[in-house]
Amino acid sequence: MGSSRKRASPPVKPRIVWRGFSGKRRGTRLCDSFDTDDHALTRSDCKMAQLFGYKAMPDSYIYHSNWFRLIRPPTLTGSVMSITAGTLLAAQYVDFNGMLFVILLITSVIVQAAVNMLNDYFDYMKGQEEGKWEVLEESAADFRGPHYAQVPYVSIGLMVLVSALTLWLAQESSFWIIPIGVIGLVIGYCYSAGRRSLSSLGLGEIAAAISLGPLPIMIAVLVQGAPITIETLLYAFPFSLLMASMILTNNIRDIKKDSSTRRTVPIRIGRKNAIRLLLVILTATYISSLFNRF
Fold this sequence. Notes:
disordered N terminus, 3-stranded mixed β-sheet, Farnesyl Diphosphate Synthase, two-stranded antiparallel sheet, globular, single chain
C-alpha cells in the first residue's frame, strides 16, 4: 500500500528541567544533542533556545501531519470575525474599502497562523503535545511533514511578510495600526514562550480577549479610515468575551494534559468552577451583544 512511516524509539536525549510554581518538576523537554552524564542542562545553557529553538534538534523530529494542520485552521476564525466586525463598524461612518479589508484580513490570518505554530513549538519544548511530533527512521525520510527545527524560521518568515503588509496598510490608512499591532504580537509571543508564559500563569483567557478582541477591531476601524471611539470598545467587548471562552473551553478539555506544565484557570479553580465561569462568560457575551444593538 505504498511507503509507510516507521516509528523509531527516540534516542536518549538531554532535557531541560522546568520547575513549576511549587518548586516541583512540572515537565521536561529535550534541549540539544549534547553528550552529558546527567542529561540536565541549566537555564543559561538553553537561553537562546527560548527564542529561536534548539539549533541541534535533529530533522527526524517531524510533525504528525502537514503545515496546514499545524496552523490550526479552525482557530483562524477568531481573527476573521474580529477584522470583519471592525470593518462593518467602520463602514457605518466611512466608505468601505474592499482592497484594504482583504489585505488586512490576509495579514491577520498570517499573524495568527504564525502564533499557532509557535504555540505548538514551545509546548513541545516544555513536554506537551507529545503525540504530535514523531521520530522517524531514515527509511521514512520521504515523509514531508514539518520539521520541528523549521517552525521558528517559518514563523519569522511569516512575520517579515506581515511587517511588509502592515507598513503598506499604515501608509494607506493610519500609522497607529503599527503600535497596536506590535502589542498584539508581543501578547501572542508571550502566550506560550518562556518558563513564565501567559498560558502557564493562567492568563491565557485574558491574552486572547485582548489580542483577538479590541486590538484587531481597532486596527480594522483605523484601516478603513474611521475614528476610534467609545462605541468601538463597547463593540469589541462581546468579541473579547467570546475569545476568552474559546481558550477557557480548551483549557477545561486539557486539564489532565496541562497539569504537569501549566497552572491554567481550570486547574486553579477546578473543573466544575471553570464550567460555571464558562457559562457566565457565554451569558455575558450574548447580553453584551444585545446591548450593542440598542
